[in-house]
Structures are given as C-alpha cells and as structure tokens.
Amino acid sequence: MKRSAALLEILMILAIIGQSSWAALPGSYCKEMGSSTYRPHSVSVTEFGAVGDGITLNTKAFQNAIFYLHSFADKGGAQLFVPAGKWLTGSFSLISHLTLSLDKDAVIIGSMDSSDWPVIDPLPSYGRGRELPGGRHQSLIHGSNLTDVIITGGNGTIDGQGCVWWDWFNNHTLNYTRPHLIELMYSKGVVITNLTFINSPFWAIHPVYCSQVLVQNVTILAPPDSPNTDGIDPDSSDNLRLVLLSFLIIISCKEHEVFLSRDHAALASILAIEF
C-alpha cells in the first residue's frame, strides 16, 4: 500500500511537470522517436570472441566489437547483435549511431566481481556518489555525449545479478555507490525498448542530462526487499516518453528524490507515462 501511494504521488508530480510543455512539442516527435532505425552495418558479438555460456567473461568482446563499429558512425551507423545465450560481462560503453540488439533468448549478465565495474567520477550535479562520498561504479551499459542510440531486442534480458551488491550495501561494505544497469549521460535521441531488466544492483535505467528519450515496452523486475532498485529515474533531462512499462519495483519509497533530486535540474517535459 505504501509503495502504491508513493508511486501515485510521483506520477502526479510528473504529470504537473510535463503538462505545461506537452503543447509546445512537435506532433511528430513521439512517432519519430519510436520509429525503427535501419543500420547498414551489423556484427554479432560472437565475431569478437564472445562465448554465451554464462561463465566466460565477455567484457573485452563487447568493447572490441563496439570499437570496431565506431568506424561506421558516419556511414549510417551500425548494429551489435547479441544472439541467444548467457553473456557474462563487466561494464562497457556505447557509441553514437549504434543499435545494441538482443535476441529474445539472449541474456546479458553483469559480473559479480566489482572490479569489472570501473569506478568513475560523481555526477556534477551530485558532487559525490549517490550513496557514499567519492566516485561510483560505472553502469553495466554506459554512454556519454552520444547521439542516436538504440538498445532493443525481442524481449531479451539484462540481468545485473544484483544480489551481491545488495548484500554489500546491507552489510555496509561498499566503498563506492552501486552501479545502474543502463546510464546514459549528456545524450540525445535515445531509445530503450522491448527488453526485460532484472536484479539491478541499483537503479535500472538512469538517463541523466539527456534529451529526446523514449523508454517503451520494458519490464523491470527486482525482489521486494532489494534496496533502492528503482525502475526508471530520469534525471536532469527533457523530452522523455515512458510507454507501456511493467514494474515489480518502481521506486524505493524511502524518499521522494526518485525523479527530482536536490541540486538537480528539473525535468523539462514528460510526454507520456503509460503502464
């Protein structure tokens, strides 16, 4: 009941924030954001040595594949395909004009070794880690200063294996703030769609300092006792559309800083929220 009441309060805040700006946005905006983008170049992560056995660490394979695809950014962009399998990896960073596409039976699995999640600087508007002083672990799928990025699939899965992070948090043994599953910073033209996110170490999806973001047809799951595993936390961003979302956990309910934190820029517009 408390979760439901807190969720309702957050949605009311979002509705008030977004109401004044809806009319000013172009009518074709949402249609353009939702349309598929053809990529003339495509590779599979297996071409770079990835093994989908759930045991082999594939961080280098993801990094090398994305480095290779960077050469196609000015040629219509490229797609990195993740086929069926269980793909264990640490954090990796995306590039502009890229589609990361998961097969319906693909599972990207976050490593349970914290050293596979690099420590990066705090966000400027935070001035410190969200949970602890100092830096924070980089998200599993990360990006900064990007344009035209799509993360999608046939309802493939991204699994953060958050249980170890939750234990470290509850036992007060963390040195840095926990990572998200996806964090994109200073980016424009972002689409996250047709995916399932489970067991995030911290917040599942965190667009920050972004614009023109569409999150559609996603499912986000975490146990009821998992700490602060918020679903989607748009932060200091504008022109967002959140559509057809399914949550087991959406907010932490311990505080109301999920969408508007102190020292953060307000969200300029939320186009729609549909569940």
Automatic annotation (TrEMBL):
SUPFAM superfamilies cross-referenced by the UniProt entry: Pectin lyase-like
Residues annotated as signal peptide: 1-23
Pfam family, one: Pect-lyase_RHGA_epim
GO molecular function list: polygalacturonase activity
A GO BP entry: carbohydrate metabolic process
Family annotation (InterPro entries): GH28_Enzymes, Glyco_hydro_28, Pectin_lyas_fold, Pectin_lyase_fold/virulence, RHGA/B-epi-like_pectate_lyase
Taxonomic superkingdom: Eukaryota
Keywords: Glycosidase, Hydrolase, Signal
Positions of the Rhamnogalacturonase A/B/Epimerase-like pectate lyase domain: 43-91
Family statement drawn from the similarity comment of this UniProt entry: Belongs to the glycosyl hydrolase 28 family.
Protein name: Rhamnogalacturonase A/B/Epimerase-like pectate lyase domain-containing protein
The organism of origin for this protein: Ensete ventricosum
